[in-house]
Amino acid sequence: MEQSKPSRRKAAKPTKKSSGTKSPAAGRGGTKKKSARSETSTRSTRAKKSRPEARSVNREGRKRAVSSSVARVSDVQAGTGADGTSDIWKWVLGLLAVGGAAFGVVKSVEAKQHAVAAQVAERQASNHRAEAEAASRRAADMERRATRECGRADIAENRARKLAIAVAEAANRQIALLRREDVPTLRFGGCAAAAANGLGIWVDVDWLLSGVVDSAVDEGAISGRVIGVVAHEWYHFLDTQRGTRHSHEEELCADGFAGRQLARLGIPPHHFADLLRQYPQSSTHPAGQRRAEAVLDAWESERRKSAS
Ligand SMILES: [Zn+2]
Predict the structure, then answer these.
(1) Buried b (16+ CB within 10 A) or exposed e, 3-36
(2) Ligand 1 mean position to 251 CA, how many Å?
(3) How confident is the chain (308 residues) per 10-residue block, as mean pLDDT?
(4) Which domain holds residue 197?
(5) Are residues 295 and 173 in the same domain?
(6) How many domains does the chain have?
(7) Are 175 and 289 in a shared domain?
(8) How far is the CA of 233 from the centre of ligand 1 (A)?
(9) Is the pTM of this model over 0.85?
């Protein structure tokens, strides 16, 4: 800080010297103007002394110069002068206008792109709604069809059950009539396949109807199975020696009894024989094939006996 003072003094001295005289620093614009004014003043002083009429001419010249300078300043301030400043402003304004127009174009393109994307999204959403509605309609149709099929199956099952029960009850009464016995109590369910004791007969209708699809088509099979089973259990119902022989022997005797009752009632034996043929031998029952042969043989024998 202390070293800067002498330099300021050195820089100030030449300025004072050059203010009144011509100096090498006269190249600057302000010094030139001052020198020109100084020369003009000197010439004006000389003219004042030599030619009084020239004074008015110089006065007019100064007025024009002043008014010209004022005009230039006003032009610069207004940006319409002839020194190139107006061109810069025009160029800047034009550039801003071009930039603004380009910005507007970009924004317009972006807005169009957003509008197109929104339309595509709306179409996709609409398609998804249509697909969901179609799937819902298909599910409703499937449910209606399933309900209809279940209803038909329920009706068919009820018809088959009613038919089986009616046939069993009729067979129970007819066998009792043939055997001249009181009609035993007949129950449907509460046992495995079928059962009997000295008090009554039990028949599982669901077991008898296994594999039956249409009661109208399978009416013969239902009748043959039901009557054969009721007749088989009738043997156990009448058998007062039950349990004193081997169970296989008792079962074969019951099957033969059933075959004879079927023949006396005019019922074909093969439906009951086919039902028995499905079961393998067990500890309580002989093989199904052997039981089926016992039914068929007894049925044929009874038919021949009745015909003779
Ligand atoms: Zn039996």
Answers:
(1) eeeeeeeeeeeeeeebeeeeeeeeeeeebeeeee
(2) 5
(3) 41 41 42 49 50 59 59 50 69 85 86 91 92 91 86 80 92 93 90 86 87 71 93 94 92 96 95 93 96 98 91
(4) 159-307
(5) yes
(6) 2
(7) yes
(8) 6
(9) no
